[in-house]
Amino acid sequence: MRRVVVTGAGGQLGVELVRRAPVGVEVIGLDRTALDIGDGVAVHRAMRDTRPSAIINAGAYTAVDRAESEPDAAHRANAEGPRHLAAAAAATGARLLHVSTDFVFDGGKSSPYLPEDDTAPLGVYGASKLAGEQAVRDTAGVDALIVRTGWVYSAHGQNFVKTMLRLMRERPEVRVVADQIGTPTSTATLADTLWTLLDRDAPSGTYHCSDAGVASWYDFAYAIRELAQASSGEQLAPVRPIATADYPTPARRPAYSVLDKTTTWAITGMAPHWREPLRAVIDELVR
Ligand SMILES: NC(=O)c1ccc[n+]([C@@H]2O[C@H](COP(=O)([O-])OP(=O)(O)OC[C@H]3O[C@@H](n4cnc5c(N)ncnc54)[C@H](OP(=O)(O)O)[C@@H]3O)[C@@H](O)[C@H]2O)c1
């Protein structure tokens, strides 16, 4: 039986990875209290003790706006963490699957970002995640896959879908930016993609993962409302499109961060259109 350690196992993706572990895999999920990936000694000890054949890192500092005022905390989890994991993976011969973000790009393109496109993060979170990618690539002797994703949501944890449902119940209307374009990604798609890349011995390198299709945050919110109302019969507040300039946030975000998944899908098969897994998550949340 193949033993795989999942770090950050208490987060949205971590929970889903443990839940969707394939038959024949013994999964050891370690949440932040069980393993702080920013602690190099603890990381090496954990991997020496468990001797996994692969490590999937789902742990990260993900508070994009708060990172602007907490750069050290972001760097510790997002840059130092992957560096320790890569070193421990190299030392024990484990494969490392490390998850990164579309926010390593500046959003200046108008066609989907390729894995090899130039990176230029706009904020502290993106810069810390890019430093984590670089630390993994720079580690001698590590067999690693870096899998970038974006706009991640699930039925558990904190995310845009749950925030929208709450606001649509509390407010007379919900204003959502319509000029940032990307693709929602369900943790189901992301977890299945990671397990499949591992199972099919995908070559080491950088991959992109999201569901299929494209949306603005406004489109995403509109679909959340439409699917939730259809599923529950509940009347929810309408959604109004606004410009990023009308919704200032501490962190700048890329205006366009659609990812090109061609190389990933050649191995895993195409992901569903983002509305399909969204429907399943909404059903779980509102029924
Ligand atoms: N969420 C998104 O929209 C999004 C977009 C692009 C990429 N990603 C990437 O996707 C991956 C999974 O994100 P997610 O959505 O599952 O995020 P999440 O729900 O915030 O989960 C991240 C988990 O990592 C844990 N963590 C934080 N610092 C840690 C440390 N030092 N050691 C061990 N664990 C630590 C967190 O624990 P605490 O809660 O206790 O802090 C949390 O359980 C991350 O690499 C993230 O950067 C996410």
TrEMBL record:
<comment type="function">
    <text>Catalyzes the reduction of dTDP-6-deoxy-L-lyxo-4-hexulose to yield dTDP-L-rhamnose.</text>
</comment>
<keyword id="KW-0521">NADP</keyword>
<dbReference type="InterPro" id="IPR036291">
    <property type="entry name" value="NAD(P)-bd_dom_sf"/>
</dbReference>
<comment type="pathway">
    <text>Carbohydrate biosynthesis; dTDP-L-rhamnose biosynthesis.</text>
</comment>
<protein>
    <recommendedName>
        <fullName>dTDP-4-dehydrorhamnose reductase</fullName>
        <ecNumber>1.1.1.133</ecNumber>
    </recommendedName>
</protein>
<dbReference type="InterPro" id="IPR005913">
    <property type="entry name" value="dTDP_dehydrorham_reduct"/>
</dbReference>
<dbReference type="Pfam" id="PF04321">
    <property type="entry name" value="RmlD_sub_bind"/>
</dbReference>
<feature type="domain" description="RmlD-like substrate binding">
    <location>
        <begin position="3"/>
        <end position="285"/>
    </location>
</feature>
<keyword id="KW-0560">Oxidoreductase</keyword>
<dbReference type="GO" id="GO:0008831">
    <property type="term" value="F:dTDP-4-dehydrorhamnose reductase activity"/>
</dbReference>
<comment type="similarity">
    <text>Belongs to the dTDP-4-dehydrorhamnose reductase family.</text>
</comment>
<dbReference type="InterPro" id="IPR029903">
    <property type="entry name" value="RmlD-like-bd"/>
</dbReference>
